[in-house]
């Protein structure tokens, strides 16, 4: 059995829920065949989120880590290609912290690429009937903080580990007036199960050679 750690965030920015944690919980409750999945909720706090991630990795000793975050306004599940070494918070985190132009890891490399087969993961989500795309920016808030932090954790402490970050849209109850895109967490979880099944059997170096680039 392949051991998977999946994480989501606590609600932030005045929201009652965070669909990343809702989806993570659903995947852990009903994992894909051949995988054991444990879910961990991370605080939406700079620094503390990486401490919680490290503790969860140490406790679970997974083979694969998938971190999730909320990206309100995006229409589908977006698999992040890269995390960058900068915190630049437009709003405070849940502890009131608001770093501006500070490194995630002082002295660390400029960026870490996902060690998952990003394009194959997107294809698997689409094949499951869920809208998906490659994303080339995880932002500069706590989501990118964790995306980069996971890459650093893999590079410096857990070289056997593979992992990456995925953004999910708002849940429908977060946009009751329907003025922005949303997906039910159950639908997101369905797509994520397909992603995990594909990631578990596909090394990053065997990713699909298909066009998923963007001009902006």
From TrEMBL:
NCBIfam families registered for this protein in UniProt: PRK13197.1, pyro_pdase
Family assignment from sequence similarity: Belongs to the peptidase C15 family.
CDD domains in alphabetical order: Peptidase_C15
Location relative to the cell: Cytoplasm
UniProt-listed Pfam families: Peptidase_C15
Role noted for this protein: Removes 5-oxoproline from various penultimate amino acid residues except L-proline.
Keywords, alphabetical: Cytoplasm, Hydrolase, Protease, Thiol protease
Source organism superkingdom: Bacteria
Keyword presence, Cytoplasm: yes
GO molecular function, one term: pyroglutamyl-peptidase activity
Reactions this protein catalyses: Release of an N-terminal pyroglutamyl group from a polypeptide, the second amino acid generally not being Pro
Name of the gene: pcp
E.C. numbers: 3.4.19.3
Protein name: Pyrrolidone-carboxylate peptidase
InterPro entries: Peptidase_C15, Peptidase_C15-like, Peptidase_C15-like_sf, PGP-I_bact-type, PGPEP1_Cys_AS, PGPEP1_Glu_AS
Source organism (scientific name): Streptomyces olivaceus
EC top class named in words: hydrolase
Quaternary assembly: Homotetramer.
Active site: 80, 143, 167
Main localization category: cytoplasm
């Amino acid at each position: 059995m392949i051991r998977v750690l999946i994480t989501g965030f606590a609600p932030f920015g005045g929201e009652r829920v965070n669909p990343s944690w809702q989806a993570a919980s659903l995947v852990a409750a009903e994992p894909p065949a051949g995988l054991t999945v444990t879910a961990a909720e991370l605080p939406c706090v700079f620094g503390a989120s990486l401490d919680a991630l490290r503790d969860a990795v140490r406790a679970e000793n997974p083979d694969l880590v998938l971190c999730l975050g909320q990206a309100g306004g995006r229409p589908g599940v977006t698999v992040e290609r890269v995390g960058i070494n900068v915190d630049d918070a437009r709003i405070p985190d849940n502890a009131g912290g608001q770093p501006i132009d500070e490194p995630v890891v002082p002295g660390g490399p400029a960026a870490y690429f996902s060690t998952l087969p990003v394009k194959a993961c997107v294809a698997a989500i689409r094949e499951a009937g869920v809208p998906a795309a490659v994303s080339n920016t995880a932002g500069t808030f706590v989501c990118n903080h964790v995306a980069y932090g996971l890459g650093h954790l893999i590079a410096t402490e857990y070289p056997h580990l593979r992992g990456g970050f995925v953004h999910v849209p708002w849940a429908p109850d977060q946009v009751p007036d329907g003025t922005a895109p949303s997906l039910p967490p159950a639908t997101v979880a369905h797509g994520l199960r397909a992603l995990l099944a594909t990631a578990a059997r596909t090394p990053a170096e065997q990713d699909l050679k298909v066009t998923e680039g963007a001009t902006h």
